[in-house]
Amino acid sequence: MSTTAVPHAVRADVETLWAYHDMHHELRRVDVCIGLGSHDLGVATYAAELYHQGLFGRIVFTGANAPTTIERFPRGEAVHYREHANSLGVPTESITVETEATNTHQNLAYSRAVLTAAGIAPTSILLISRPYQQRRAYATCRKVWPEVNVLCSSQPLPLDEYVDSIGDVNRVINMLVGDTQRITEYAKRGFAIEQEMPADVQAAYDRLVDVGYTSRLI
């Protein structure tokens, strides 16, 4: 069985969740870009691309390690992101790294702290994340940093191309399901603002849980 082909039986439900997490924000110039650490090096690739387009002059890469990233990024997610952006022509002086955060709430709170320490008080930011993390990142930022104007984006890859880039379809589907659960659960716990959960998204989530995509559930 292919490790990168979305199974036909669940494709419609996966596509429903994939579309739900895309905030469809229109990009414009912002004060700072914050690249959220994860296993997805595409975050750094896209941050570098937008930097060269002139959308911002400062990047903060944030992230320590999770169990899923320690082997791939032994020096920490943010450090590897910076090195990758450097290799794509972003100068080191334009990049700040935050190396302690282990969740999205900390990504934002700690990034804000390192910017404040550097005398930078942005009024607008662009959060770059994995595609299925956009909505959660937005909801978390509105809770943690409500006064900043926030946009969210990800590498603009179609679902199948993204799965190919990660190389593990089950991992992607499980992460999609887990992030969908976190939209409601994190709001209940006070970690994020509430977000609408349309009936078709809830139904797709429930069906994917029922067939066993549960490894990333809380």
Task: Walk me through what this model shows.
- With 218 residues, the protein is of the alpha/beta class.
- The protein has two domains: 8-20 and 158-210, no CATH class; 25-153, Rossmann fold (3-Layer(aba) Sandwich).
- Helices cover 45% and strands 11% of the residues.
- It has helices spanning 11-21, 42-52, 77-87, 104-117, 134-144, 159-166, 169-188, 199-210, and strands at residues 32-36, 59-62, 95-98, 124-128, 149-153.
- It has a five-stranded parallel sheet with strand order 3-2-1-4-5, with helices on both faces.
- Helix 1 packs across helix 7 (169-188), helix 1 packs across helix 8 (199-210) and helix 4 packs across helix 5 (134-144).
- The mean pLDDT is 95.
Summarize the structure.
α2 links the parallel β1 (32-36) and β2 (59-62). This protein has helices at 11-21, 42-52, 77-87, 104-117, 134-144, 159-166, 169-188, 199-210; strands at 32-36, 59-62, 95-98, 124-128, 149-153.
List keywords for this structure.
218 residues; alpha/beta; Rossmann fold; 5-stranded parallel beta sheet; 5 strands; 11% strand; globular; DUF218
CATH architecture group name of the largest domain: 3-Layer(aba) Sandwich
End-to-end distance, in Å?
Answer: 28 Å
Q: What share of residues is helical?
A: 40-55%
CATH fold naming of the largest domain? Rossmann fold
